């Protein structure tokens, strides 16, 4: 008989705390960002757009979160395989189908299990990834 250890899911309170942490990191760097948090099912739990951020940052941050969830790999692990400095990258795959990669999306884990993802948009890709990573590191 197999037993599975229960892992607490990502809650709205977690998502709000992640948004606050990412926006605080961005504000400290003087960058206006939009932040999106999705749960493991891809449902949008929280979204905040800074009024100084460009409107496109809202859609971008959500796409980054969904992409990170689909990839389940930290952006930093893929950075060497893509051209630095661009927001959107295409990675070749063995199936001859390109894989869309968006910098600034970070999957969220609890007890080694994927529980969601956070996406940040509005700064340079490296900045967005840093803000998202800082928030992810604050998740308890």
UniProtKB/TrEMBL annotation:
PANTHER family: PROTEIN GLCG (PTHR34309:SF1), SLR1406 PROTEIN (PTHR34309). It holds the Pfam family HbpS-like. This is Heme-binding protein. Gene3D superfamilies: Haem-degrading domain (3.30.450.150). It comes from the Bacteria.
């Amino acid at each position: 008989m197999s037993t599975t250890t229960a892992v607490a899911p990502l809650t709205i309170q977690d998502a709000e705390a992640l948004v606050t942490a990412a926006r605080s990191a961005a504000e400290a760097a003087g960058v206006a960002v939009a932040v999106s948090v999705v749960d493991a099912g891809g449902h949008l739990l929280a979204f905040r757009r800074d009024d100084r951020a460009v409107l496109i940052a809202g859609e971008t941050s959500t796409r980054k979160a969904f992409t990170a969830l689909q990839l389940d790999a930290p952006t930093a692990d893929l950075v060497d395989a893509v051209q630095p400095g661009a927001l959107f990258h295409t990675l070749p795959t063995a199936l001859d189908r390109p894989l869309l990669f968006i910098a600034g999306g970070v999957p969220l884990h609890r007890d080694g299990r994927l529980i969601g993802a956070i996406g940040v948009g509005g700064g340079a890709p490296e900045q967005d990834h840093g803000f998202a990573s800082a928030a992810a590191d604050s998740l308890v």
